[in-house]
Every structure is written in structure tokens, then in C-alpha cells.
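the three lines:
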Amino acid sequence: MSRMIPHLVRRDRASLRMAVLAPLLALAAAIFVNLLVFLAMGKNPAAVFYALLLEPFLGWSSFSEVLLKTGPLLLIAQGLAIGFRAKVFNIGAEGQFILGAIFASAIPVYFPQATGQWIWPAMLLMGALGGALWAVVPAFWRVKLNANEILVTLMMSLIAAQVLNYLLLGPWKDPMGFNFPQSVMFQYDAMIPILLAGTRVNVSLLLALFSVLVAWVYMQRSFGGYQFLVGGLAPKAAAYAGFSESRAIWLSLLIGGFAAGLAGAAEVAGPIGQLQRGISTGYGYAAIIVAYLGGLHPLGILASSLLMAALYIGGDNAMVSADLPIAAVRVFQGSLLVFYLAAITFVRFRLVWPQHKAGAA
Amino acid sequence: MTKAYGQVVANDAIDLTVGRNSIHAILGENGAGKSTLMKLIYGVESPDAGEVLWDGQPVTLSSPAEARRLGIGMVFQHFSLFETLSVVENISLIVPGKKADLAARIRALGQDFGLDVDPFADVHSLSVGERQRVEIIRCLMTEPKLLILDEPTSVLPPQAVGLLFDTLRRLRDRGVSILFISHKLDEIQSLCDHATILRGGRVTGNVDPRQHDAHDLARMMIGRDMPPPLHADPLPVGDIRLELSALDHQPDDPFALGLSGVNLRLHAGEILGIAGISGNGQGELARLISGETRLSPARRDDIRLMGRGVAHLDPAARRALGFAFVPEERLGRGAVPEMSLADNSLLTAHPLGLLKRGLIDRRAEATFTAACIRDFDVRTSGPEAEAGALSGGNLQKFIMGREILLKPQVLFVAQPTWGVDIGAATAIRQRLVQMRNEGVAVLVISEELEELFEICDRIQVLHKGHLSPSLDARTTKAEEIGRWMIGAAGVPA
Amino acid sequence: MSGLSFILAGMLAAATPFLLAALGELVVERAGVLNLGIEGIMALGAVLAFIVVYHGGGHVAAFGLAALSGVVLALVFGWLALGLRANQVAVGLAVGILGQGLSSLIGNSYESLTITGIPKLALPGLSALPVVGGLFVQDAVVWLTLAATAAIWAMFRFSRLGLILRAVGENPHAARAIGYPVIRLRLWAVMFGGAMSGLAGAYAATVYTPLWADGMIAGRGWIALALVVFGTWLTGRIFFGALLFGAVSLASLVAQTENWAVPSQLLSALPYIVTIVVLGIITSNKRLLKVNGVASLGEPFGP
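prediction for all of em together
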């Protein structure tokens, strides 16, 4: 029976063409499968896809919203990808994002009257530290206690959600807020300056774009990035060469936490302007998809974060125009990742169909 | 039979006939296609073309279970046993029956053929030789008419080889045909009545090995005369470069053997060989010397390199003192399979000016790699080829080259020619002797005794984590090394 | 009812979703495969089972559909991780995300609806005991889960199938060399794991708390994954671990009835905190993991 099934044969070297093609193939496959889903839901697929994939790019105001969402996704995914390449799987960016938002909010919550242009940069710094701090636990657990960072980072995210709840229902609740679980609105100086006039896009987008440059130099050109790569591809070779595994784990998690925390701070000090329950619409999880879809490559991630941001905006559009539940976007994202992981197999392998016996003899 | 893996044709239209009551050798060097042919006969792989006749009838060997049903059994070179299971559990995976019955049959067979083993021992607690016995017993319990043994003597000390041969002859006399795979000419001449010789995936000879001398067989095997062994002339003893004193170590891995009381002194301008069957602590010893396993700073002087206590230092720090290491696993340890040769140069050669302010200097990297490929005759498409695409011999030459270009004071090589074709093996051994003549201290771990006798000045034997005293390679006989290999010569048993 | 007898009575039911999912994952991991998608598989099973019961299909059909949906998602996982040898961590995350997305989408119009669970069955005699009596009044699924625990324990302890699974997980290359179809065996194990996770989700949404709310699995799939590590891949230890988490997850209810002065969020976070702490304690013992662990866990295998 096994002779009728095509089998995988390793290529002599990775196929660059497939590496570039894989996300596009995955996108095509995801569109096709979700088309069937939308049909099954009785939606007009053309209208849905128009709203989901095209509309976000049509018109400056909706495109500026795409850019607004790109910022946090890009920032978090760049941080995660560094770890993923070292096979350190930080899947708790959601929690690190929340902690970043909480740490940043501490300044306007405790000093609501403070003024001066130092406030928002200080908030960003606090947020980055908060995110990194939340990653200390999984790093310590992995290095010193040998515990799997996947489970610990995930648990830390679930705990972060409870910390946020506690603050919003308790000590940080806005006394004038009609008992809503949210903090006070932040003062003007706690808000990141707007970058593009007439939009909500602020200076933090520049930070996210800068992270592409930093990640590119670090991962593609530096010896430090090379060490991460060796650790991920062949841990024994890293040990043989004397590259420290603990250092890679600590750095991976701290960088991931730092970037996610920064993104969280930029969110409360940017478009939201206060601490509330809905600060993250699953950015931390979506960034995992962004990182993979970008091939864990800094430039690829730039492209994939734009796509995912557009899906967010498109999802909102489709909810209004086509009455599509927002969860449909999550299904689309999930299937995109599934197809991408299928497609990248063919970067290293090619498919060989069995030959007929007669021909070979 | 024909079988290709991608572009590589491992078996090219091979014809083979095995008679009854015959011990039939398959002779060929590494990469000649011996193992692939055996996998085809045992049904692990299916051929691209060709057919198998069993007792004159065409059969399809679609799986090992099918092969066993016909009466074909196989003893693998890298054993197919499961460490966390007991002997009887391992055997029950292919032999049906109740555990108690199986255990009784294991004992009976053991007595019959001199293959003593405890059925209820866990496999991880067994020595390599005992594991081979388990594999053979497991095969015999399926009552085979054809028994395949893949390089069975590589895991045995010289004395035990004779016992194994006795067992095999007894089996032959009871009507079992035997396919004996080896690259050792003397063994084949003393045991086998027929030999099929493979080279580059093709049959290059079908002979009675007793009618031919070793030269003929070697020529058929490698296509030219066997290169003459080169013995190194003794040199005056230099300064001590590496020293292990009373080194004890119990690894984290509960299945691994610990080391106890290991003493070793390596001088400039000599080659010291560590003999012994793999699995006697070689892996842990190599990791301790290389720094992949580190000890606490308090025990730093347990290992001294260039006159400094280094047992607490990581591999990079030890390299900085003039140490270089070629590990036995080339893919995944000595080199990253998915990376280009150029990027693999960077692994250990980065201090040779391949970095500029923390960034990789691609041009220097390519120059270094090209030099390594040229000077060490690495056959590849160039510095951009992925390490995983190279043959075992070529990758070994590349890694050897990279480490030698580091200009080490101490060069440590584990299993230098394991899985390497004879041409490359000769080149590697010559290079080691050349390094020694230039005053480098060379340490070699090898399970090939002939190799150690060829190139070493002194030999120490590792057995169950104990290292024997130093023996002079030029005057000591193989039998004495053999006694140390089974622990019969020294104090610890 | 005292806090202790309340916990004793509710512990088994609270432990059942953990236990079902962890038993399934135990079989998967024993065969050498790491499926991180449990949380999503549970979520999909939960919503489908809820919908079946809500529309009057009954609990048996609900559990059947949940198991089936688990198998389907497991096949997606198997196709990628076993067929295409993709990174198992990434594939597990992908399948988990897909499962959670599907559960939100399908459950969109059922948010916050409730149904009725199933009756509890008392063991005569034992259930009348003081304090511990509640332990013996449980619903049918709990009793069946206990039976499944014993069956899986016996399978690994005595049966040939258990031996084969352990062999495939320890050394797939050797297993293939002696003729076992490694990929197919692993695929069966993965499908079994998917079915069990689907059942775990069904129990959570139709019996334990018979309502649908998006995100109601709330990390229980991840805790089940941690339980397999806590139990060092041994059925008995996983069972006791699940009981512990059942008890911990009841703590917030006890705290409310006993008026403890603890923020409810801390109690909600308690299972996650306990997971992290216990994980650190167990995994720091490397010898223990090596002796009982699965040597080839998570490594892609291709012939």
C-alpha cells in the first residue's frame, strides 16, 4: 500500500523559491477553504473577501487603521521570531503585552496630574520592562528547573489576565467610571504623539519599523544571531561550539517579553488611552501566526504583519457590512497557519511519486 | 535489485545467490551499498526494481514481518533494541508468546549457543556485547533459515569474535544460511565459504574468499591496491599538553555509564589512542575533555590543558587555549546539517578573523571555507553547499580541516574514520600523523584497533568507565589490548 | 456542607475534563508525539456537544460528535506533523488556534445559553458514609472516565499494544527496522488523543457546567498537557494529578461559601500558579524525567 503514496525526499539544499512561495500558497488555500465556510454560513463570499482583504487597503483612513494594528503585531512578532529560531517557544506574548500595558499605566494612574513630555517615553520604557519581567519566570523555570517554557509562558498569560481583572475591578478602577472595569482616562502628556496627522497612527509605529532593522542586523548579520540559529537547528552543535544554551533562553524570552511589553505600553498610551479589559484583541497569539507566516525572517514578518493587521480591520468591516462574526477572522488566521506549515515542508523536501515497476526495470 | 535515494543509486542491479548451509560474506567498504542491500532483503526498504526468489519461488518482501514469516532474521549493526524495556519485552515485540515461556526459551537458546543473557534485565543495563546476544537470540527465536548479520564484530573484543564465529558455524551446521556483512578481510577469510564484493553499489566480485589472498579481495573492494599503512617513527617525548587525574564523573543520564579514576597524560608530538568498544564511557569522556560537560570550579584541576585547570571551562574557552575537537557525530554536532559549509566554518573558526565588530564577515568566511575545501580535498559544489548534502567522508574531511586550520596545540578526534571510505580514511590518518610530527599533541578515540595500532604511539583501553594504564603501541599485542577491553587484564572487572 | 466534604464530592467531576484530555495526550506522547492543540480540540468538542444537547439531541450523540470533531482536528495535526514532518510544536499551536477559532464561530449564536446536565448515580452503601459519601455520588461520565483510567493503566502495564506504543515512542527507527508501521501507529494514537480531548470538552460544556461561553475551556487543555509531565507519563500519577487540579479549581467556590478574604482573581489564577510551581518541582528532577520520559518525544520522524 505504501508504494502508491508519494513520499518526501530531502532536497540537497533548501529551496528559496518555495520559501517565498509558501505564504502565498497558504493564503490561496486558506481563501479557498474559508470560501466554503462562508458559503456554508450563507454569506456572500465575494462580499466577505472584499471586506476582509481588499477594503482595508482602499482609502487612506482604513489603511491608516491597518498601520495602527501593524505596529503591535510587528513588534511582538519580531521579538517572538528571535526565540522561535532558537527553538525557544514563547507563546505567552499575550501576558507580556498585558503586563507591559499595566506597567505603563502605573504612571498616569498614580500621577494623573503630572505633565511634561517625559511621561509617554517613560511609560514605554516601563511597559517594556514589565513585559520582560513577566518573561523572567519562564526563563528561570526553563534554565534552572528544566521546565518547558511553552506551558509556563502560557500559564503566565492566563495569570496576567487575572492580574488585569484584579486591578480594573479593584485598586485601579476609575472612581468616576460608573463602575466600569477600566482606569481613568490618561492625561494628554501620557499619550504618544501622532505621527500621521488626521489618523490615529502614532510615533510607536516608527519603533516597530526600527525593530525590523534591528532584528535584521541581529538575526541575519551578527554572530549573536548566528548562535541562536545554531542552537535552534542543532543544539548539540551549539554545545560543541560552546554557545551557551542558558544565554539563548534568557535572551530569547527577555527580548520577546520586552517587545511585547513595549507593544502593550504603546497600545494604552496610544489608541486606547486608558487601561481596560479590551486592551488586547489577541495580539499576543496572532503574533505567533505573524512570526511563522513571515518565515521567522525580519522582512517576511514585516509583510505578514501587514496582512494580519488588514485581516483585523477587514474583520471589523465584514462584521458591519456582511454580518460576519469576528470569530471567522480567527478561523481564517488558524487555517492560514495550518496551510503555511504544510507548504513550508516543501522548502526542504520535494514530493516524489512512485514510479511504475515496469518502467524502472 | 536496484534502490536509489534521490540522486544516489545505493544498489545498482545487484545479483546475489545464497546457498543452503553457507556462510556468505558481503564485502565492501563504507558506502558500497551493503546496508541498503540487507534492508531490501529484510523488507525494511522496497526495491525500485528487481526481484527476490526464496527457495526458488518469487516473493515480495513488503515488511520485516513478511521477511520473518519466510524465515529471514536480521541482527542490526546499530541495534534495534529498546533501552527502557527488558530483554523479554524486547523479544516479545517480534516473537509471540507468554513472558514466562519466552524467558525459558531465551535461557535454553542461550545454553545451546553460548549466548548467556538474563531475560528480565533491562536493556539499558546491558553491555554492548550482551545487547548483541539479545539481538541474535531474538532472531534465532523466529527460527530463521537465513540469518543476516550487519558488521557484527565491530562491537566485540578480539577474543569474543572467535566465540561468535563458533556460534555461527554451529548454526550453519544446523541448516541456517548466514549472510555476514563486513569490511574486515581476515574475518571473512576465516569464516566464510563465499563472498560477494560490492563497490559503489555494484557487484565487483563473486568468489570463495579462502581461494584468494587479502590483496585480491582488497582490490575488488576498493578498485586499487590497499594503501600501505604508515607507521610513525617514535619522537622524543614533549611537554604535557593535556592531563586527566583521577577523574570521576557520574553523568545526569541514568542510563549512561560513569567514569571512575581516569588518568591520562598527553604529550606534544605523540598520538595517544583510546581503545575500547563503544558504550564503555567514550561519549562522556569526550564531552568532559571537550567541555560540553563541565565540572564545578572546585574540581578545575581534574582536567588540565596547557598547564591550566580547565574542567570548569566551556568548549570555547578551552579552544582559546589551543584545543580542537572533531566529534564522532558529524551531523548535528560537528556540523549543522541545514547550514552551508561557510556557515559551518563559523561554528569554531570564528576567532580566525571571520567576525568584524560582532558582525559576520561574509568574505572572510568564504575565503576560509574555500581554503579548507581545497587543502583537505573536500569534494563538494562549494562553500554554499549544505553540510547535510556531503558524504560522510567528505564532511569528516571538512570538519578535520576546520579544526586543523585552528592550529591547535591539542587535537582530539573521536572515531576519525567511522563510516568513511578507505581513500578518505587513509588521508585522515596521514594527516593525524603529520600533525603529530609537527609537534601537536593528538588524542584519538577509536573502536578500530587496527587503526590505533597503525597511527598511535601509546594506547589506553576504556572499559566500563575505567581507563587502563598506558600501553606501548609498538610492542603490545592485540590480545593484550583485547584482555583490557573485556576487563580481564586489570584490577576492575 | 463543610468545605472538605464539598471538595471531596465535587473533586472527581472537576477532575474529569483534565483527566480525559490528559489520558488521551498520555497515549499520544507515549507514542512519541507532542500535540499542543488540546485546548482548541476541547473547545470545538465543547461547543458541538453543547449545540447537540441544546437542540435535544441528547448527551450520547453530543459526546459522539465531540469525539468525532476531535478526531478530525487530530487528523489535521497528523497530516502536518506525521505526514509532512512539520515541527510538532508549531502544528500543535496552529491546530489549537484553529480549534478555538472554530469554537467561537460555531458558538457565536449560543453565547451564554444553558442546558441541563445529566443525573448523578450513587454507589449504594458507600454514598451514605459521612464526609466522604459525596465521593460516591457521581455522574455516569465520571464512572466511565475512572474505568478508562484503569483500562489505559492496564494497557501500558500488561498489553502488547502498550509495549508497542512505548517502543515506537522510545526509538521509532528501531521500531521501523523490526517492522512496525511507526507513522500509522502514531496516527492512531493521535486520533485517540483527539477523541479524548473532544470528550473532555463535551463533559466541560454539557455536564460539569452545562452552558456555553466563548473561552470556557480556560486553559484546562494546557493544564492537561502539564499533567502528563507531572505524572511523568504514568497513568496512576496523572490520575492523582488530575484530582489535585479538580480540588484546586473548587477552591474558589469554597472560598466564597467560607467568606475567605482573598481576591477572587487570585483564586481563579490558582490552578495556573499551581501548574507553574508543580511543573518546576517535577522537571528539576532530570533523572526522574529521563527514566520515565519518552525518548523521541516531539521529534519529526521520516523513513
